[in-house]
């Protein structure tokens, strides 16, 4: 079983690369954003709890995010592995993921980070924002704020996984095929 955590700033190409990786390695892709949207849209018990926090303008507590992720993992008992996208985002979430996977005799195999220069990514997002309709991709100040938040939250995670020899930075600039090849080289050495 291969369990990969995929990191990258907004615009780094996580979604694009996740599609290739899940197909190539037959992994179950779990995007935290997709899991949140599913629970909210289907008004599940967890979705109702999430909506309460969101409606109050509060951050969704780690425990609730972790519970949703665990339920999603449980839906795929016969998987060959998971590709976690957007999770974990905090040290508490990383620790909770490790504990949860250990209950199944699994572990995070590797953390792969798509790395790219902020200025290149900002231009990418502004271009994407012209056609995607995503408001968060149309304001450079908001994009920079997202990067600041990413740096603050993921720096400790990178150190956490580096101490376990599970952190692998990958150059996220180039063609989609070039980046996919770089990621594949890392994964095939696991």
UniProtKB/TrEMBL annotation:
Reactions mediated catalytically: AMP + ATP = 2 ADP
Keywords: ATP-binding, Cytoplasm, Kinase, Nucleotide biosynthesis, Nucleotide-binding, Transferase
Region spans: NMP: 31-60
PROSITE patterns registered for this protein in UniProt: ADENYLATE_KINASE
GO BP terms, alphabetized: AMP salvage
Localisation per UniProt entry: Cytoplasm
Gene3D superfamilies hit by this protein: P-loop containing nucleotide triphosphate hydrolases
Record bears the keyword Transferase: yes
Iron-sulfur recorded as keyword: no
Transmembrane feature ranges: none
Binding site for ATP: 11-16, 128, 174
Cellular component, GO annotation: cytoplasm
Pathway(s) this gene product operates in, as recorded in its UniProt entry: Purine metabolism; AMP biosynthesis via salvage pathway; AMP from ADP: step 1/1
GO molecular function, one term: AMP kinase activity
Listed EC numbers: 2.7.4.3
Main localization of the protein described in the UniProt heading: cytoplasm
A Pfam family matched in the record: ADK
Positions bound to AMP: 32, 37, 58-60, 86-89, 93, 134, 146
InterPro entries in the record: Adenylat/UMP-CMP_kin, Adenylat_kinase_CS, P-loop_NTPase
Entry's free-text remark on domains: Consists of three domains, a large central CORE domain and two small peripheral domains, NMPbind and LID, which undergo movements during catalysis. The LID domain closes over the site of phosphoryl transfer upon ATP binding. Assembling and dissambling the active center during each catalytic cycle provides an effective means to prevent ATP hydrolysis.
Function comment: Catalyzes the reversible transfer of the terminal phosphate group between ATP and AMP. Plays an important role in cellular energy homeostasis and in adenine nucleotide metabolism.
Matching PANTHER family: NUCLEOTIDE KINASE (PTHR23359)
Family under the similarity heading: Belongs to the adenylate kinase family.
Subunit structure as annotated in this protein's UniProt entry: Monomer.
Protein name per its UniProtKB record: Adenylate kinase
Native organism: Flavobacterium psychrotolerans
Gene name of this polypeptide: adk
């Amino acid at each position: 079983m291969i369990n990969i955590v995929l990191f990258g700033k907004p615009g780094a190409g996580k979604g694009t690369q996740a599609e290739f990786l899940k197909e190539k390695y037959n992994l179950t892709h779990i995007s935290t954003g997709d899991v949140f949207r599913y629970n909210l849209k289907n008004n599940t018990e967890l979705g109702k709890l999430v909506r309460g926090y969101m409606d109050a303008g509060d951050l969704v507590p780690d425990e609730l995010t972790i519970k949703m992720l665990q339920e999603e993992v449980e839906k795929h008992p016969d998987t060959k592995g998971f590709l976690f996208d957007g999770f974990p985002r905090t040290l508490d979430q990383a620790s909770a993921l490790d504990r949860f996977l250990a209950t199944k005799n699994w572990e995070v195999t590797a953390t792969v980070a798509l790395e790219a220069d902020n200025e290149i990514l900002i231009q990418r997002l502004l271009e994407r924002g012209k056609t995607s309709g995503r408001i968060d991709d149309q304001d450079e100040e908001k994009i920079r704020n997202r990067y600041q938040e990413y740096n603050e939250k993921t720096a400790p995670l990178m150190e956490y996984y580096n101490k376990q020899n599970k952190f692998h930075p990958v150059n996220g600039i180039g063609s989609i095929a070039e980046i996919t090849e770089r990621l594949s080289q890392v994964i095939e050495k696991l």
